[in-house]
Hints:
Blueprint: H1 2-7, H2 32-40, H3 57-60, E1 63-66, H4 69-78, E2 86-89, H5 90-93, H6 111-133
Parallel strand pairs: 1-2
Amino acid sequence: MRHKLQLAGLADRVQVDSAGTGAWHIGKAPDPRTRAVAEGRGYALHDLRARQVQADDFARFDLILAMDHDNLSTLRSLRPAHGNAELDLFLRRGGLAEEEVPDPYYGGADGFERVLDMIELACDRLIEQIRGRL
């Protein structure tokens, strides 16, 4: 999303971050297969490290998007009373027919490519929505 926001000229107006709902990957780099597919399309992930969603994220961001229903449910349970962030599914917000991003680990050799295709399309559509709100 950051890369696409830069290309759209919106990087200085939109703050984006990535975080997981669990603590098991904190501080780790993305899976090597994810990095390979992303870097093959021009996305630099070498500095990216996993972090866990924090209570202040719900006040710091206007919108928090989950990749699947389980994570959306977890986000709803984590949201503090003072958290005003809107919660939704990433693909649903991006207007895709599929609501959940499939786990690429179970998609065979093409799983990572397929997931990135979905994410890129949803990002493009989200950027158009954001542009309309600014």
